[in-house]
Amino acid sequence: MNLNSIKTDRAFDYGYLLKRIWPYIKPVMFRIIIGFSLAIPLGLLDGATAFALKPYIDVVINGNTYAYKGFVLTRDMLATIIPWAIILFAIIQGLLKYINSYLTDWISIKISNSVKEDLFKKLVYLDSKFYDDNTSGLVISRFLSDPDAASKSIVESTKTLITAFTSSLGLIGVLLYNSWKLAFVGVVVLVCAFIPVSLIRKRVKNVSNASMVVGSGMTTNVNETYHGNKIISGYCLQEDIYLKFKTQIRELFNLSMSLTKRSGWLSPIMYFIASIGVAVVMVVGNHLIISGEMSTGSLASFITSLLLLYKPIKTLGGTLTGMQTIFVCMNRVFELFDIQPEIKNKENAKELKSVENNITFENVCFEYEENKPVLNNISFEVKKGEILALVGNSGGGKSTIVNLIPRFYDIKSGSIKIDGEDIKNFTLNSLRNHISEVFQDNFLFSGTIRENIIMGKKDATDEEIKQVIQAAHLDDFIVTLEKGIDTPIGERGTTLSGGQRQRVAIARAMIKNAPILILDEATSALDNKSEAIVQKALENLIKGRTVFVIAHRLSTIKNADKIAVINEGRLVEIGNHHELMQINNGQYKNLYEMQFAKEDVAMAE
Predict the structure, then answer these.
(1) Strand segments (E) across 1-131
(2) What is the 3-state secondary structure (H, E, C) of 152-210?
(3) Distant-in-sequence, close-in-space partners of 568: CB < 8 Å, separation ≥ 6
(4) Is the pLDDT of residue 57 over 70?
(5) How confident is the model at residue 97 (pLDDT cuts 50, 70, 90)?
(6) Which residues pair with 359 in a beta bridge?
(7) Is 134 helix (H, G, I), strand (E, B) or coil?
(8) Rounded to the nearest 5 degrees, what angle is found at the Cα of 136, between the Cα atoms of 123 and 456?
(9) Which one of 170-179, 325-334, 336-345 scores highest in mean pLDDT?
(10) What phi-psi label fits residue 363: left (phi over 0), alpha (psi between -120 and 50 degrees) or beta?
(11) Is the pLDDT of residue 524 over 90?
(12) DSSP calls for 507-555
């Protein structure tokens, strides 16, 4: 399934998205409540300075006496209290901001990590076709970047909304306290300022999706540059790769500017609306002062509150716009959770205990893409302990056949059986635990040689490890290393030669001790010296196992119990070397004479 083809389009279904993320919010809900509770006084304290202006101007500056229900404050008292009160409120607000920021970061990272853990678990259980259909950059973007954008930002944005909302309420309270008539103007301004926000939701969604696609392409480009650096240098592709990246950068720039063009006018429009509100307040306020309905301090306090109100309104507008991007990311995250692997255990699948008799292919047909057959009616039998060699023209379907045995892919029709039982009836784990693979380009993980070998058997003893190292002819190499088997090998085993990587992979397969062995061009990429050593290791690995081998070397093929010739997805010949060489104009005979005769001559000499 290609990730770019998923279109659930539920980025505006906020109830659905919140319901999906609730399991990740629930464990940290107590801290969220504390954080959101702190956001309320944090916002309300924004109105403290504006509130203090009324008594300060009316009493301290104009010399009036402040009295409320018999409680009297003189000019000197307020002149002392108000400045210190403002400082105290600032200290309290600063402490609340620190605690709130710490809680917000803790909660956000915790939620993001939980989402990424579950997503990565989903990723490792997806089947091979998923990786065939999607680039590394797209996978990295969707499985790492989107969870961060969605999970880490949702708490911060919600806290910002609460703070801005409560700040607005506090400032509106100050407006009402000073003059309900002028407060009506302020509320109208507040409502009008939110209208533009609702107009750009879909524009934000479309641009955000497009930006994420381009961003994943850039990640793929960087990833390919890292792993393909020798090819890039060898074929002088630096300028081509650079131009490709430059084009992606420009495309991302254009998308970013498109989003700015669509949302950037929010701030000036909101500022314009707020300015109209302030102008109307000044005109009406001046009239109220002249008529004696309002004091100078009240108007100053009111205008200050209204100006301060612009900041949380602007914050609310920007945050609401940003949250739409968050919901887009959240929707993309839950699209990933809804992906189901095409290859999975069937209901009531049984455990494969052992391989006692044979492995059979019965009229197997397979295709990677619909209506584009790769294998057509492949049938053969391999008895326990036999070696089947698969030969034929490149692209004929040999690797596909061996990839079907561990169910990396599922067949379209026919059946593959172990001891007469369809492999689909076995659990995936038990089936794959009975199969070892050594490929042409074996993947080694970053870590040590030991860690890569024991992947075949996590509880292997030191004696077992020593035995497979000797059998894989790794001992002469390992003794030259300062840290021996605990030597780090770098990402993908880059510090090892091709032959050394193959021998580590052979040791990994040996220690697994699976009864079925798949060798897919295990020596084709090696020089003669490395191949000779690896071939000896393979001979130790093959003993006592049922082997499927794809190889271009004479010795392995001639000694096979059966040789299957695969051409354009069809089984055209099968038999041992002697039998196939008796077929006049046979494909194996022609292949042997073309590819292997020279090697026979060289060996004879």
Answers:
(1) 66-68, 71-73
(2) HHHHHHHHHHHHHHHHHHHHHHHHHHHCHHHHHHHHHHHHHHHHHHHHCHHHHHHHHHH
(3) 393, 396, 397
(4) yes
(5) confident
(6) 382, 418
(7) coil
(8) 55
(9) 336-345
(10) left
(11) no
(12) HHHHHHT-SEEEEESTTTTS-HHHHHHHHHHHHHHHTTSEEEEE---HH
CA-to-CA dists, residue 409 to 126, 127, 351, 403, angstroms: 11, 8, 19, 7
Which residue do the tokens 């409320």 mark? 68
* Residues 528, 284: Cα–Cα separation, whole Å: 95
Helix, strand, or coil (residue 493): helix
Q: Give the separation between CA 582 and CA 565, rounded to whole angstroms.
A: 14
pLDDT band at residue 604 using 50, 70 and 90 as cut-offs: very low
User: Using N-to-C axis directions, what is the helix angle for 75-124 and 29-44, rounded to 10°?
Assistant: 150
DSSP lists the bridge partners of residue 387 as 547
Nearest to 417 by CA among 431, 396, 398: 431
Write the secondary structure of 76-93 as one string of H (helix), E (strand) and C (coil): HHHHHHHHHHHHHHHHHH
Task: Report the alpha-carbon distance of residue 189 to residue 182 in Å, rounded.
Answer: 11
Check: CB of residue 325 under 8 Å from CB of residue 208: yes
3-state secondary structure of 365: strand
Task: Tokens for 460, please give them.
Answer: 């292997």
Question: Is the separation of the CB atoms in 513 and 435 below 8 Å?
Answer: no
Question: Which tokens hold the place of 502?
Answer: 């193959």
**What value does the mean pLDDT take over residues 222-241?**
69
pLDDT of residue 447: 83
Direct distance between the N- and C-terminal alpha carbons of the chain, in angstroms, rounded to an integer: 54
pLDDT digits (tens, 9 = 90+) for 14-42: 788 888 888 888 898 888 888 878 877 87
Neighbour count for residue 249 (Cβ, 10 Å): 12
- CA–CA distance from 422 to each of 12, 128, 344, 410, 525 (Å)? 46, 20, 14, 12, 34
Q: How far is CA 292 from the centre of its chain?
A: 65
What pTM did the predictor assign? 0.70
